[in-house]
C-alpha cells in the first residue's frame, strides 16, 4: 500500500504539464490498483517462500535441524558432478518432449472435431474431461493397476487382439512412455477445454469470409483457426510445458522413479533430497535451477509462439 | 453448408436425383464413422473411470480378482454392494467405527474450491484486465513477476509457505486453503489471452466517453469474456478440488479436512481400503463432472453460431 | 518517474522476502524444559495436547481409548484433552519434518522405530531417560529399548513390536502336497524356494502364473523392513553381512556388497525374473489375501486383515518360520511404532506423562485389545493367552529367538530410500547385472550418510 502513495509525489517533479501529469498519474495509479491484490498475493504467498528457498540453497539446511552453516555456491557446484541430477534433467526433458506436443496436437484435433453441437458430442466431451476431474493420485493408482504386467486391464485388452502380455512400468525403456501416456490421458481435458473455449471465441463470420473466398476446410483451419487461436495455443503450450516439467505425483505413485532411474524426474529427485535425504538446502538449489530452466523455456516458447498482431 | 446448397440449386434435375442418393450414402457413412469415433474416444477416456465406479460397488476381495483375462466380471460385480458407500458416509458400523464422514469432507471441498473460484474471479479478472488493456510502465516486467511464480515446484516452497500461513495465524482454517490462492498466475495468464480477443474499439470508445476502468471491465470486458471466465474458473475449481499435499499439511482439524486427503487416508501402512478409495473417488469426481456438463454451453460453440466442418 | 514507483515496489518485495527468508531460522526448535504448562494444570484450565500420528483405523480407536483412560487415571488430568491428527503413513515422516521446520504445535508424535535415531540426532525428540529408571526399561523387550534409544540414551517408548514370519494358504500347500513346519525354525531358503516353485501354478498355460508361490513383504514398496532381511541372512551371526552396516552406522561397502550378500540379491532377481521366478515382477499388494499367492512373509497384523476380509473364516492359513540361508543366519527384523515427545511441546511434563502411560501396562493393554499385534511388553508376551499358542505364539518366539533391530543409524531414512530403489532395480532391471547395482547402492548410501560422520560422539540431548 505504501508503495502506491509514495510513488505519486516522487514522480511529480519530472513532469512538465501539471494537469496532464495529474491525469496520467491518476490513470496509472488506478490501473495499478487492478493488479495490486495479485501483487500482494504473489509477494506474500509465492515470493516470500521463493526467497526463503533461494536463501536456503546457500546454506546447509535440513527441515529437522534448521538452517546450518553458510556454504555459498557449494550446492550449485555439487550439481555439476551429480549424475542423478543430470539423469533426472534428461528424464524430465524427455517427458516434456513426449507429452506436450502429442497432447496439444491430440487436444486440438479433438477440439476441432467436437466443437460443433452434433448428437453425442456432449457425451464425448464429458468423457474427455472426466480424467481431469479425477485426482492424479487415484488416477495413478488405477493406471498402475491397468499397466500391471500380469493382470492389468491393458493386458486383458491386448489379449483380445491376441497380443501377449507386455511389461510397462517395470521395464526401464517403457516406464517413462507409460507414465507419459497416462499423463496425456489425464491432462488432455485441460488443453481440450481451453482450446474449445478458444474456438468458440472465433467469430463465425471469419469462416464465412474464408468460405466465400473458396477455401476448403483445411485451408480455413490453417488461415483462420490457427492464427486466431494462436494466443490460446501459446498459452496452452507454455502452461503445459511448465506443468509437465514439474511432474511428480504420478511418478511417486506408479514407479517411484524407477526402475534404474528411468522415471526419476527432477521434482521427484528434489522431493527425495528435501524430505527423505534431509537436505532441503540442496533441494532448494535444485529448484532454483529448475526455476531458471523453466523461465528460459517459457520465454523461448512465448517468443516462438507470439501471436502476430 | 450454405455454399453447397447454392451449388446444388444450379445443377440439372436428372443429375440431382443421382447426386441425392450419393449424398445420402455419404451422409450415413459419415454419421457411422462419427459414431464409431465417438465411441472409441469415449471409451479410451472412460474405461478406467467405469472400472473404478463398478469397483466401488463390489466386494473388496473381488476388485482385482477378475482382471485377466478380459471377461464380463472384469467390470461387473458378481456381488453388488453399497457397503463402501455406507462406510464412507459413516452409515455402516465399520464406517462409524472409523469415524468416516465423507459428506462433511465433500462440503469442505466445496467451500474451499468455491471460495477460491469466487475470490479468484474478482482479483484475477482485475489483474488480467490490467495486463490486457491498461497502460502502465514496464508492464512486461510485472507480467514476468506474475508468471515466474508458475515455475516453482510446490514441493519446495510448501514449507516456507506453511511458515507464512502460520505467521498470519490462519493455519488449520478454511482461510489457509483459500487465501494463498486468491490470485493465480495461471488464471491471470489465461484471462489475458481471452481478453485480447475482445475488440479494442469497444472499451476505448467507452473510456473516451469518460467511463471508469471498473465500469469498462464490468460492462464490456466481463460480459464478452464469459466463456473464458467460466472455462478458467472450472479449471481453477478442479485444481483446488484436487489439491492434496497442502490441505494435509495445513489442516489438522478433521472437521474441515477436504475430500482428497481423507480418500488418501484409506491407504494405510499394511493395506488399502480399495472399495472406500474408489467410492470416495467417485464421490469426488461426479459432482465436478456434473458442474462441467452443466456449464458446457460456455466452452462449446452453441448451435446458433455455426463454424465449419473440421 | 515511473521507475521510482517500481523500484519502491521491488524494494518492498525484497524487504518482505528478506523477512520471509528469516523464517526457517526462527523455526528451529528451542527447548524450554520443565516449566511449560504445569501452572495451567494446577489451575484446572483446559489443556489440549497435540499428537501427530499415522492413519490407521484401529490404531486411532485405540489411541482415543488410551487418551480417555489417561484422563481418567488421575484427577489432575481431568482437564486434559488429547487431539490426534492422523496423516497417511507415507506422509508421516514429511509431515513431522514440516511441523518441526515451521515450529507448529506438536506435543507428541508417533514414529517408526528406526527413524527415532534420526529424530534424536536432529534434536527433534526429547530424551525420556530422566523419566525412566534402568529397571523400568526392562518392562519391554531389549530390541524395543535399543530401537527407542540413541547413543545409549533412551528417547521414546514403544507401542508394540513386530517380527515377520511366513504365512501360507493351506488350500494351496495341501494341493501341492506340502507341509510347512509350524515352527519358527521353518525352512531354509532352498527348501522354501522349492515350495514356492511347486505352488506357482499356471492353469491357463499362457506362460504367466495365475497363482504365485511367494509374496515377500507388505504393501508394494520394497522397503528394508522385509526386503532387507535376505541380504543379512546370507551371513552368519556376527559377520559383516549379518551386521548390515559398519560399526559407525555409515559404512556400507564391505557390508551390503559382500559376495554372499550379492548372491542373495542374485536370488532376489531370480525370484522375480527367469525360469525360477516365484513372485510377480511388479508387486501386487493384495495378492495373498486375494488367494493369488501361496506364501506371504509378513508380521502378525496379516491375521487381522484376513479376519476383516474373510469374516466367515473361509480362508485357511498357517504360519511357518521365515526362510533363511543355510550358511548364514535366520532373522526377522523387529521394531514398530514408538511415541516421541516433541521439543516443541508447551506441556513437557504432561506430554511425558502421556507417553509413559501409553507405553505402560494400562495403555499397552488397551492398545493390544484393539490393534491385536505383537506387544513390546515382556509381561504381556508372557501372559496373553493368544501368545502362548499357535499361530501367535510363533511371533512372540520369533521376536526373542531371531528378532534383530533394523540397522542402527541416524541416516536410516536415507538408507532405506536407496535400499528400496536397489531392490526395485534388482527385481525389475532385466538384463542389468546385479553386482554393480549393489556396489553402486553401497556407494550412494555412504555418500548420503556421510553427513552423519561422528554421530556416535554426539552427546545425547545436548
Can you offer a commentary on this structure?
The complex is a heterotrimer of chains A (309), B (310) and C (462). Chain A has a two-stranded antiparallel ribbon. Helix content of chain A is 74%, strand content 3%. In chain A, a hairpin with a 3-residue loop joins strand 1 (59-62) and strand 2 (66-70). Chain A has helices at residues 2-12, 18-56, 74-80, 83-113, 121-133, 136-147, 153-160, 175-201, 204-212, 217-245, 249-254, 266-276, 280-304, and strands spanning 59-62, 66-70. With 309 residues, chain A is mainly alpha-helical. The longest helix of chain A is centred in the N-terminal third of the chain and has 39 residues, at 18-56. Chain B is mostly helical. Chain B folds into two domains: 2-89, no CATH class; 101-265, MetI-like (MetI-like fold), CATH 1.10.3720.10. Chain B has helices at residues 2-9, 13-55, 72-75, 83-88, 93-97, 102-133, 139-148, 154-167, 174-178, 185-196, 200-208, 213-224, 226-241, 245-250, 259-264, 274-294, 296-299. In chain B, helix 2 (13-55) runs antiparallel to helix 16 and helix 6 packs across helix 10. Chain C is an alpha/beta fold and 462 residues long. Chain C folds into two domains: 38-159 and 337-372, Periplasmic binding protein-like II (D-Maltodextrin-Binding Protein, domain 2); 165-332 and 409-456, Periplasmic binding protein-like II (D-Maltodextrin-Binding Protein, domain 2). Chain C has helices at 2-27, 38-43, 57-73, 89-102, 115-121, 134-137, 142-147, 170-175, 189-199, 224-227, 229-233, 240-243, 259-272, 301-309, 348-359, 361-371, 378-383, 392-402, 412-428, 434-449, and strands spanning 47-54, 80-87, 108-112, 149-150, 153-154, 165-169, 212-216, 293-298, 317-320, 332-333, 337-341, 403-404. A four-stranded mixed sheet of chain C has the order 2-1-3-11. Chain C is globular, with a radius of gyration of 24 Å. The model of chain C is unreliable at 1-40 (pLDDT under 50). Chains in contact: A-B, A-C, B-C. Chains A and B meet through helix 2, helix 4, helix 5, helix 6 and helix 7 of A and helix 2, helix 6, helix 7, helix 8 and helix 10 of B.
Amino acid at each position: 500500500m505504501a508503495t502506491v502513495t509514495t510513488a505519486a509525489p516522487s514522480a511529480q517533479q519530472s513532469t512538465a504539464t501539471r494537469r496532464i501529469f495529474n491525469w496520467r498519474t491518476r490513470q496509472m495509479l488506478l490501473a495499478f490498483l487492478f493488479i495490486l491484490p495479485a501483487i500482494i498475493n504473489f509477494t506474500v504467498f509465492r515470493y516470500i517462500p521463493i526467497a526463503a528457498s533461494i536463501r536456503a540453497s546457500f546454506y546447509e539446511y535440513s527441515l529437522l535441524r534448521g538452517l546450518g552453516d553458510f556454504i555459498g555456491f557449494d550446492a550449485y557446484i555439487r550439481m555439476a558432478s551429480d549424475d542423478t541430477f543430470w539423469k533426472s534433467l534428461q528424464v524430465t526433458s524427455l517427458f516434456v518432449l513426449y507429452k506436450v506436443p502429442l497432447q496439444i496436437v491430440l487436444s486440438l484435433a479433438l477440439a476441432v472435431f467436437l466443437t460443433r453441437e452434433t448428437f453425442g458430442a456432449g457425451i464425448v466431451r464429458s468423457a474427455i474431461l472426466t480424467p481431469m476431474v479425477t485426482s492424479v493420485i487415484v488416477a495413478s493408482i488405477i493406471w498402475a493397476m491397468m499397466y500391471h504386467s500380469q493382470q492389468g486391464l491393458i493386458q486383458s485388452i491386448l489379449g483380445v487382439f491376441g497380443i501377449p502380455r507386455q511389461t510397462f512400468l517395470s521395464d526401464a525403456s517403457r516406464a517413462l512412455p507409460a507414465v507419459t501416456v497416462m499423463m496425456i490421458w489425464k491432462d488432455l481435458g485441460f488443453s481440450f477445454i481451453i482450446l474449445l473455449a478458444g474456438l468458440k471465441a472465433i467469430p463465425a463470420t471469419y469462416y464465412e469470409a474464408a468460405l466465400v473466398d473458396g477455401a476448403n476446410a483445411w485451408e480455413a483451419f490453417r488461415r483462420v483457426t490457427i492464427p486466431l487461436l494462436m494466443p490460446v495455443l501459446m498459452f496452452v503450450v507454455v502452461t503445459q510445458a511448465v506443468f509437465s516439467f514439474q511432474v511428480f505425483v504420478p511418478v511417486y505413485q506408479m514407479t517411484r522413479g524407477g526402475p534404474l532411474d528411468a522415471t526419476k524426474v527432477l521434482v521427484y529427485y528434489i522431493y527425495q533430497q528435501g524430505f527423505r535425504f534431509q537436505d532441503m538446502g540442496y533441494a532448494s538449489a535444485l529448484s532454483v535451477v529448475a526455476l531458471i530452466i523453466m523461465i528460459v523455456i517459457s520465454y523461448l516458447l512465448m517468443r516462438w509462439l507470439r501471436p502476430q498482431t | 453448408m450454405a455454399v453447397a446448397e447454392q451449388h446444388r440449386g444450379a445443377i440439372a434435375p436428372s443429375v440431382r436425383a443421382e447426386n441425392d442418393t450419393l449424398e445420402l450414402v455419404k451422409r450415413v457413412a459419415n454419421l457411422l464413422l462419427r459414431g464409431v469415433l465417438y465411441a472409441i474416444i469415449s471409451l479410451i477416456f472412460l474405461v478406467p473411470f467405469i472400472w473404478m465406479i463398478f469397483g466401488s460397488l463390489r466386494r473388496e476381495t473381488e476388485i482385482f480378482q477378475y482382471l485377466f483375462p478380459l471377461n464380463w466380471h472384469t467390470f461387473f460385480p458378481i456381488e453388488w454392494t453399497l457397503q463402501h458407500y455406507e462406510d464412507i458416509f459413516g452409515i455402516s458400523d465399520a464406517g462409524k467405527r472409523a469415524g468416516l464422514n465423507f459428506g462433511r469432507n465433500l462440503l469442505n471441498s466445496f467451500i474451499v474450491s468455491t471460495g477460491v473460484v469466487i475470490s479468484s474471479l474478482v482479483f484475477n479478472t482485475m489483474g488480467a484486465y490490467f495486463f490486457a488493456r491498461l497502460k502502465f510502465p514496464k508492464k512486461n516486467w510485472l507480467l514476468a513477476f506474475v508468471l515466474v511464480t508458475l515455475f516453482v515446484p510446490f514441493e519446495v516452497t510448501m514449507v516456507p509457505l506453511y511458515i507464512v500461513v502460520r505467521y498470519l495465524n490462519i493455519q488449520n482454517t478454511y482461510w489457509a486453503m483459500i487465501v494463498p490462492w486468491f490470485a493465480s498466475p495461471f488464471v491471470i495468464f489465461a484471462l489475458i489471452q481471452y481478453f485480447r480477443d475482445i475488440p479494442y474499439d469497444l472499451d476505448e470508445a467507452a473510456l473516451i466517453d469518460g467511463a471508469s476502468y471498473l465500469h469498462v471491465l464490468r460492462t464490456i470486458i466481463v460480459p464478452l469474456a464469459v466463456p473464458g471466465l467460466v472455462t478458467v474458473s472450472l479449471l481453477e475449481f478442479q485444481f483446488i478440488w484436487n489439491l492434496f499435499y497442502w490441505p494435509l499439511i495445513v489442516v489438522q482439524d478433521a472437521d474441515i479436512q477436504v475430500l482428497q486427503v481423507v480418500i488418501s487416508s484409506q491407504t494405510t501402512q499394511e493395506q488399502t481400503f480399495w472399495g472406500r478409495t474408489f467410492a470416495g473417488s467417485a464421490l469426488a469426481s461426479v459432482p465436478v463432472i456434473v458442474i462441467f456438463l452443466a456449464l458446457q454451453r460456455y466452452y462449446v460453440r452453441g448451435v446458433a453460431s455455426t463454424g465449419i466442418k473440421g | 518517474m515511473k521507475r521510482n514507483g517500481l523500484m519502491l515496489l521491488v524494494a518492498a518485495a525484497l524487504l518482505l522476502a528478506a523477512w520471509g527468508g528469516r523464517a526457517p531460522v526462527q523455526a528451529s526448535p528451542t527447548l524450554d524444559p520443565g516449566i511449560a504448562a504445569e501452572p495451567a494444570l494446577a489451575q484446572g484450565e483446559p489443556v489440549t495436547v497435540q499428537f501427530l500420528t499415522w492413519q490407521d483405523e484401529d490404531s486411532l480407536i485405540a489411541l482415543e481409548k488410551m487418551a480417555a483412560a489417561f484422563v481418567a487415571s488421575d484427577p489432575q488430568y481431568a482437564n486434559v484433552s488429547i487431539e490426534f491428527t492422523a496423516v497417511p503413513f507415507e506422509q508421516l515422516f514429511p509431515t513431522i519434518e514440516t511441523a518441526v521446520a515451521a515450529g507448529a504445535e506438536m506435543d507428541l508424535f508417533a514414529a517408526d522405530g528406526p527413524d527415532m535415531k534420526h529424530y534424536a540426532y536432529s534434536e527433534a525428540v526429547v530424551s525420556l531417560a530422566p523419566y525412566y529408571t534402568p529397571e523400568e526399561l526392562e518392562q519391554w523387550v531389549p530390541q524395543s529399548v535399543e530401537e527407542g534409544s540413541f547413543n545409549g540414551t533412551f528417547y521414546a517408548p514403544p507401542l508394540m513390536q513386530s517380527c515377520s514370519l511366513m504365512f501360507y494358504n493351506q488350500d494351496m500347500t495341501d494341493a501341492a502336497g506340502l507341509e510347512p513346519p509350524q515352527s519358527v525354525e521353518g525352512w531354509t531358503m532352498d527348501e522354501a524356494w522349492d515350495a514356492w516353485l511347486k505352488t506357482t501354478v499356471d492353469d491357463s498355460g499362457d506362460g504367466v502364473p495365475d497363482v504365485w508361490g511367494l509374496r515377500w513383504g507388505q504393501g508394494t514398496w520394497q522397503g528394508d523392513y522385509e526386503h532387507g532381511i535376505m541380504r543379512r541372512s546370507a551371513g552368519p551371526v556376527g559377520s559383516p553381512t549379518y551386521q548390515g552396516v559398519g560399526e559407525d552406522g555409515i559404512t556400507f561397502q564391505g557390508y551390503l556388497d559382500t559376495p554372499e550378500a550379492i548372491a542373495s540379491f542374485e536370488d532376489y532377481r531370480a525370484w522375480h525374473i527367469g525360469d525360477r521366478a516365484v513372485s510377480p515382477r511388479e508387486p501386487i499388494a493384495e495378492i495373498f489375501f486375494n488367494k493369488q499367492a501361496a506364501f506371504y512373509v509378513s508380521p502378525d497384523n496379516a491375521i487381522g486383515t484376513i479376519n476383516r476380509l474373510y469374516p466367515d473364516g473361509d480362508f485357511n492359513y498357517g504360519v511357518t518360520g521365515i526362510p533363511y540361508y543355510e550358511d548364514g543366519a535366520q532373522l526377522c527384523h523387529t521394531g514398530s511404532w514408538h511415541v516421541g515427545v516433541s521439543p516443541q511441546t508447551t506441556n513437557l511434563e504432561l506430554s511425558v506423562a502421556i507417553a509413559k502411560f501409553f507405553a505402560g501396562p494400562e495403555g499397552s493393554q488397551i492398545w493390544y485389545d484393539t490393534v491385536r499385534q505383537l506387544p513390546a511388553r515382556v509381561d504381556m508376551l508372557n501372559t496373553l493367552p493368544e501368545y502362548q499358542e499357535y499361530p501367535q505364539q510363533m511371533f512372540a518366539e520369533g521376536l526373542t529367538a531371531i528378532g534383530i533391530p533394523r540397522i542402527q543409524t541416524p541416516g536410516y531414512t536415507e538408507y532405506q530410500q536407496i535400499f528400496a530403489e536397489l531392490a526395485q532395480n534388482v527385481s525389475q532391471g532385466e538384463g542389468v547385472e546385479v553386482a554393480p547395482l549393489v556396489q553402486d547402492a553401497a556407494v550412494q548410501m555412504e555418500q548420503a550418510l556421510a553427513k552423519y560422520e561422528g554421530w556416535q560422539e554426539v552427546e545425547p540431548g545436548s
